User: Which sequence fits this backbone?
């Protein structure tokens, strides 16, 4: 099947071609402003000069970006001349008019000197794009299982591991012997992580030799490897380090602890795409910025109208705002100040992306709420790196404030806020939303019988199962103790019931280990839906009542709210 979607190179080339067609019109528009300046008096002359300043500011910011570097140089000079004249009260108009006429002629000449920038842009983005994975809308429980190769020395324990790994979203496959590892990898394709024992007929060197061969293959040089063994000597650990083992676990290991380690060594493949909002009145620049960031695996939204910014913020929930400084009707400093007035968006990084090169003006803009200032034109690689650094830091800080430290799920306060946001979004879209309240059955008995450390492992196991079984768009929160909540956008009560009945079943099959004993734990859930229950408070109460009904009916079940 032929893919008709244009490549990134083709999209960049299209933007460049479109800009080349428009640039003559923009210069003609400048000519009109200059004629108006020559024929105007006093206040009207100031207005015409401001129009020239604004138009040349846009050209200065966009010219080099689309392959016209000399346009940027000349337009910048024209802009600076206009700024200086406005600051001096528009004195020396005839001399200024002559100077602007000469620069306008230079600008027309510069508009004919075009470089092919699509290839350079693509080269800047390609490295970043390879480090990111593409995301597509997912369905409940449909996320790709991570492929895991297990090289055991005990067949019975390996089969038990395979069964439990499946509950946590791993497609575990047995490799009979270390010598077969590379052959199985070449046959089965990509693998996310390898678990290996070190003892084979009493010879640890067999596994070490196989791992050395693995690291010699370029394709598998960085594949995560976890050792799971009874050997706990310094020599064994040193050998593992020398062949690039990522984690070393000494038997016996509780499955919840094993899953934590596997999550850590494979986490780089799970990162959600960064969400970036672009606010720029120049549609060409906004489209170009979006394309560059999308090419690096980010999710973007653009608006050229600041007046609808709150609606876009509420709907998109960006993790960074790229903001032009100069826009008609409302400048970037004012927009930043308004955004900071909203408590839920007070911490979002705001990065000005503007042609303004005056450091004093840049610092002045940042005093009203900006976090950084990038000057147009900017290399694609620099833009991507700046955005990546800021959003990564934002996620780290947000995680400390918004997430439960033990499970990594949203905390009680954040979950409540996100429920309000999702209900507002659902009201605008006219869709539906499901809320699930869930609770671990007889959890006090687990703590009393096996200790709080084991109880913590049970809680983390449930958190991991919820993350694996639910979509990236779903919100999962720990409400306190053994109580959890899940918000399922665009889902009705029947769909949520089916999803959580499966989760309940899988959770009940997980085997936990403590004091040479094994045990299972069950789960009860209550499901309610919006708009059947019309506010966040009513919806939460309905889900809680359904959960209580599940408890009173014998536990280990899911109940729909009336």
Assistant:
């Amino acid at each position: 099947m032929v893919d008709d979607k244009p490549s990134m190179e083709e999209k960049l080339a299209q933007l460049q071609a479109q800009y080349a067609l428009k640039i003559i019109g923009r210069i003609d528009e400048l000519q009109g402003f200059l004629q108006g300046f020559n024929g105007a008096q006093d206040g009207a002359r100031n207005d015409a000069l401001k129009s020239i300043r604004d138009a040349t500011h846009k050209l200065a910011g966009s010219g080099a970006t689309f392959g016209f570097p000399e346009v940027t140089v000349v337009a910048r000079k024209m802009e600076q001349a206009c700024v200086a004249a406005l600051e001096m009260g528009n004195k020396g108009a005839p001399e200024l008019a002559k100077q602007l006429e000469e620069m306008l002629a230079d600008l027309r000449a510069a508009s004919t000197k075009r470089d092919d920038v699509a290839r350079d842009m693509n080269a800047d983005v390609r490295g970043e794009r390879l480090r990111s994975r593409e995301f597509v809308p997912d369905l409940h429980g449909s996320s790709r299982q991570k492929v895991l190769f297990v090289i055991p020395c005990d067949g019975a324990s390996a089969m038990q591991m395979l069964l439990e790994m499946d509950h946590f979203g791993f497609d575990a496959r047995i490799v009979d012997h270390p010598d077969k590892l590379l052959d199985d990898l070449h046959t089965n394709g990509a693998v996310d992580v390898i678990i290996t024992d070190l003892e084979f007929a009493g010879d640890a060197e067999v596994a070490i030799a196989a791992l050395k061969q693995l690291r010699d293959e370029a394709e598998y040089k960085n594949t995560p490897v976890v050792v799971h063994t009874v050997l706990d000597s310094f020599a064994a650990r040193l050998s593992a380090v020398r062949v690039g083992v990522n984690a070393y676990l000494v038997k016996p290991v509780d499955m919840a602890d094993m899953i934590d380690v596997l999550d850590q060594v494979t986490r780089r493949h799970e990162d959600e795409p960064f969400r970036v909002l672009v606010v720029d009145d120049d549609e060409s620049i906004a489209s170009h910025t979006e394309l560059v960031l999308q090419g690096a695996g980010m999710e973007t939204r653009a608006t050229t109208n600041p007046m609808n910014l709150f609606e876009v913020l509420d709907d998109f929930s960006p993790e960074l705002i790229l903001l032009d400084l100069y826009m008609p009707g409302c400048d970037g400093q004012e927009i930043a100040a308004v955004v900071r007035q909203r408590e839920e968006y007070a911490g979002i990084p705001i990065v000005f992306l503007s042609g303004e090169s005056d450091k004093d003006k840049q610092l002045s803009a940042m005093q009203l709420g900006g976090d950084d200032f990038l000057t147009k034109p900017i290399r694609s690689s620099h833009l991507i790196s700046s955005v990546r650094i800021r959003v990564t830091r934002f996620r780290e800080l947000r995680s400390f404030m918004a997430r439960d430290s033990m499970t990594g799920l949203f905390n009680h306060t954040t979950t409540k806020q996100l429920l309000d946001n999702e209900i507002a979004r659902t009201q605008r879209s006219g869709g539906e939303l499901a809320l699930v309240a869930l609770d671990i059955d007889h959890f006090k008995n687990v703590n009393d019988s096996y200790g709080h450390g084991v109880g913590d492992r049970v809680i983390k196991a449930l958190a991991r199962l919820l993350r694996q079984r639910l979509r990236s768009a779903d919100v999962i929160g720990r409400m306190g103790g053994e109580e959890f909540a899940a918000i399922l956008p665009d889902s009705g009560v029947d769909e949520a019931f089916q999803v959580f009945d499966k989760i309940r079943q899988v959770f009940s099959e997980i085997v936990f280990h403590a004091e040479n004993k094994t045990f299972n734990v069950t789960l009860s859930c209550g499901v309610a839906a919006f708009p059947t229950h019309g506010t966040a408070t009513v919806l939460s109460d309905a889900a809680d009542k359904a959960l209580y009904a599940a408890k009173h009916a014998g536990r280990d079940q899911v109940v729909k709210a009336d």
User: Anything to note?
Assistant: The two ends are 48 Å apart (CA to CA).
